[in-house]
From TrEMBL, chain A:
<dbReference type="InterPro" id="IPR036457">
    <property type="entry name" value="PPM-type-like_dom_sf"/>
</dbReference>
<feature type="transmembrane region" description="Helical">
    <location>
        <begin position="237"/>
        <end position="261"/>
    </location>
</feature>
<feature type="transmembrane region" description="Helical">
    <location>
        <begin position="41"/>
        <end position="57"/>
    </location>
</feature>
<feature type="transmembrane region" description="Helical">
    <location>
        <begin position="69"/>
        <end position="92"/>
    </location>
</feature>
<protein>
    <submittedName>
        <fullName>Stage II sporulation protein E (SpoIIE)</fullName>
    </submittedName>
</protein>
<dbReference type="InterPro" id="IPR029016">
    <property type="entry name" value="GAF-like_dom_sf"/>
</dbReference>
<feature type="transmembrane region" description="Helical">
    <location>
        <begin position="203"/>
        <end position="222"/>
    </location>
</feature>
<feature type="transmembrane region" description="Helical">
    <location>
        <begin position="104"/>
        <end position="128"/>
    </location>
</feature>
<keyword id="KW-0378">Hydrolase</keyword>
UniProtKB/TrEMBL annotation, chain B:
<dbReference type="InterPro" id="IPR002645">
    <property type="entry name" value="STAS_dom"/>
</dbReference>
<dbReference type="Pfam" id="PF01740">
    <property type="entry name" value="STAS"/>
</dbReference>
<dbReference type="GO" id="GO:0043856">
    <property type="term" value="F:anti-sigma factor antagonist activity"/>
</dbReference>
<dbReference type="InterPro" id="IPR003658">
    <property type="entry name" value="Anti-sigma_ant"/>
</dbReference>
<protein>
    <recommendedName>
        <fullName>Anti-sigma factor antagonist</fullName>
    </recommendedName>
</protein>
<feature type="domain" description="STAS">
    <location>
        <begin position="2"/>
        <end position="111"/>
    </location>
</feature>
<dbReference type="InterPro" id="IPR036513">
    <property type="entry name" value="STAS_dom_sf"/>
</dbReference>
<comment type="similarity">
    <text>Belongs to the anti-sigma-factor antagonist family.</text>
</comment>
Amino acid sequence: MRLSLVLAVLLWLIVILIDVLQLLAIRSDLDLGIRAEIPRLIEALFYVFIVIYYRFKISNVESGNFVDLLWRVFATGLVTTIISLIFRLFYSSIDGTALANNEFLITALYDINKALISVFLISTFTVWKRLILYQKSKRLVFYWNTFEAGLMLSILFNLTGYNLQSHLWFQILFVALGGMSIVLSGNLKWVAYLNFKQKWKSILLILLIIIYIFYFFSYLYTPPEESLAFLQDIDSLFLIVLFTFLTFYSIFSLLVILFNLPTSSVFEQKMEEAINFQRLSQSIQQGENEDEIFDVLLTSSMSAVYADAGWIEINSHDKESKFIAKHISREKINQVKEHTHRAKSRTVMKNPFSSDKDSERVLITLKKSTYRSVFIVPITVKSNVVGFMYLLNEVTDGFNKEMINIINTFASQASVSVENFRLMGEAIENERYKEELNIAKSVQRALLPEQLDHNDAFQIHAFTEAAAEVGGDYYDTFKLSDTKFAIVIGDVSGKGTSAAFHMSQMKGIFQSLVQLDLSPKEFLIHANTALSKCLERTSFITLTYYIIDTEKREIEYARAGHCPTLYYDKQKKEADFFQNKGLGLGIMRNDSYKNFIEVNKISFNKEDILVLYTDGISEATNSEKDEFGFERMKSLLEKNAHYDPVMIQKVFISKLYEFCERKDLDDDYTIVVIKFK
Amino acid sequence: MLTIDKQNENHFLLIHVSGEADASSSIHLDKAIRDAMDEGMPQILIDCTNLNYISSAGLGVFMSYIEEINQKSISFIIFGLSEKVLKVFGILGLDQLLTIKKDKEEAIETLNAV
């Protein structure tokens, strides 16, 4: 950028030098051998560098700051004019002296002036380009590029040495480029974005710029007074097209701005409305609360309709109505409300989406009040009217159709914002609950044993899955001695959170009672007593309690209403369910519970298998409402009895999923497999 | 879905229960029995012929009235249980605490015998 400026200055110095030298040569009848094209070529290069320089310089200015751009043009013009005037002053001061007739001085000064003027023209051109291409379309860009390319080529055209007055080609090209510049001058969209003050500034600046352009034109092309010609030879197509373009665009802009002045306040109002609208829709993102949204609504609505006062009244069921008021006291609000109730002159605008009387918008004309017109807009959230906005105007018929439309848009946008705000609150709340449930899940997971107590006499493996985050299935083990183990499986009625709480109570009861080394029957009686005091009336827990004695190779067990245990007898090569009586815990909440418990004892042999499970497995249903069922489980165990507990569990669960054709079962399901050695 | 239908017959109240008694629908079953109890009905028959499924919550409803039935000496008879539903009652041990009969005739016979 700087380089192109330095080069341009250097080039122009060369031009001056050549001009002066040529003058010298003519004086002394010498031929320097410099061809006429060379200074023209250097001049052309100068233009190119200046164009490049301004291209970069102007592109740095912030887009949309039009007055600033115009100010730059004005400043460049001012500097150029001042220098030019100084030269003129200097010239008139030496008028009559020999120096005044010094051709070298005249040439040099003329050249410097011309350079400055072309700098001004090019800088103005670049700014005008920015203005034209504000809000560009593809077609406009194409058109502009064609024009700019034509203009750049016209720099080269200067090399021909043709002039406007005597060459037809020059005239044709001038008319063509001039015509294009007039068409391009129609692009004045930027004017619309100026506010009233900016428009006045722009008018002033453009007016001065036009004066500069005319002054420079006359400086370059007006012949001395004694000359008969109307204009001097115009030898640069580039400069003359620039002059034409700049003049047209300046005049067009000036006129358009001038005619736009009276309507600019309307445009500003519209812009403000758009901004307010945006504020309303964005207000929730900035973490504002509902009151702030209503505040924005009231402020924007009041400024949009030039209301003198207004308030928003938000009704709530449990609390007193909330008021957000502007330029009006509570006392006055009550007065106005009373007036509106009595007013006869009211225009009701029905809400097309609701037949509710509350959702109607009402326009009221008051007679005996400071405020002559009142506009009442209901504020709805999720199709419920939550409040009303009152807008007051001191003149009658203060609200026109246009204003009413804007207010409606504002009100509905505010409703959307409030709705979104509430939804967001709910979403955050839900997220929190989810988080809590996840914590509950991991807490519950920890209630189930990670390591299952056992010795070399048997292998044990467990698998459990809850339908919701937390469930009511329970299993646990306890080492009573080196050869005696307590194992329990249970299922809490219901599912989800309430079941999970009861399951944790069961865990506590098991862990305390098991240490007493009770018989299975005693254990169940105590557990029933304990649970009777803490389970609600409709809840119960089913449980089976086993004591495995590996020394005696015996299993003693009692069933409290839990699913019958599946047992595989290796010798018979048969699986079957234990049939014995029992009653769920918490059903019989008195001493008679013991009458319902039966204790059984069996001895086990090598490779016998004990399968404990919950009804989530046996009662799992498929789409035809068939149950997975006892028969299926029996044959499944018989077929897979040669596997180890882990594999048996895997086969059971995969067959279960296959049967149900899905993995998300409706109930919690647990399976514990024990295989004896 | 659970449908509850109440019917007053001669000297007893007949409650028809049909559909599926799961955690949410059992509330209706509970309300029907509660109302009957509060009205002081001495003889209540529950017709479960069309009850396809009962969850632990549904069982919990029946279970919660056992004590009250015994205390107030109410004749509370369930009949028409399908094999599947009866099995669920059996596993839990509720069959030992509630009077369960095969069909309406048997239920009425039991009522008359008292």
